Amino acid sequence: MTPQKNVTVPLEQWINDIAERAQLTDYMLKESHLPGPRANLELSDSFTKCCGKLDLTDTAWELLHFWVNSSEEEVDTNDPRVFLTFCAVRASGAYYGYAEEERQSVIRGILKSAMNDSRWRMREAAAMGMQSIGEYDFTLLCQLWDRWGPGATQLEQRAFVAALAHPPLLKVQDNALYCLNLATEMMDRLAANAGVKGDPEHFRVLSKGLEYSLSVFVASEPVAGFAMLRKFAQSRDARVIKIVKSNLGKARLSKKYGPQVAEILNVMSLL
User: Fold this and answer.
1) Which residues are CB-contacts of 93 (< 8 A; sequence separation ≥ 6)?
2) 151 in a domain, yes or no?
3) How many of the other CB atoms lie within 10 Å of CB of 255?
4) Does residue 180 share a domain with residue 269?
5) Low-confidence residues in the chain, pLDDT < 50
6) CB within 8 A of 204, min separation 6: which ones?
7) What integer pLDDT is reported at residue 134 of this predicted model?
């Protein structure tokens, strides 16, 4: 069955009118597509666009702040109510570049909390929110890593690598090189902590992020990118090798850069 398109509604008007909050909430819940495998990203996009602007009203800001406060214990990842939080986190990221410092501080707290949330939809919302920050000003996104990177949890690292594996951010060469350097830092950190026990679920999430994102960075800057993969292809850490092999198997590399991929795979086979 073909899904119905969203009915046109005065979404921005509802967002900015506290008297319409109940109607807005009811609409968002009904159109969330939850429970289900895929939330209504088109509606989330529209909501985010309404909030990512300089003249965000106090009413809209209060709505975002209200919706982000959903408990992991009370609202699971497939509950329609999680869609409200998902949208609010994304929209907060889209507003970040326009916000004054006090509100930016609040948004940083929102994003960091969402990065470490046990619900995968919240972690995706954080990554997507940071993509909006990067699209507004890539330097702002780099500043967040400078602030959080040294002590970043594995879930926070995954959020950054997922946010940066976003082709619109990689059209500028300096951006792509920055992403490769950040990914190298994460891989080095992973290898250095080979014997350190941690949360296996957190590692799984980080590993899954690295298993595809490196290929996005390499495709954007192949000379430096394949040099990075060659370095880690010589690792004795099985976890690192798995990440490298997964990226080499991505079509964006295997189809366009067959000789480079074959060379690294050959190196790995000889170790």
Assistant:
1) 107, 111, 126, 128, 129, 130, 131, 132, 133
2) no
3) 9
4) yes
5) 1-4, 6
6) none
7) 98
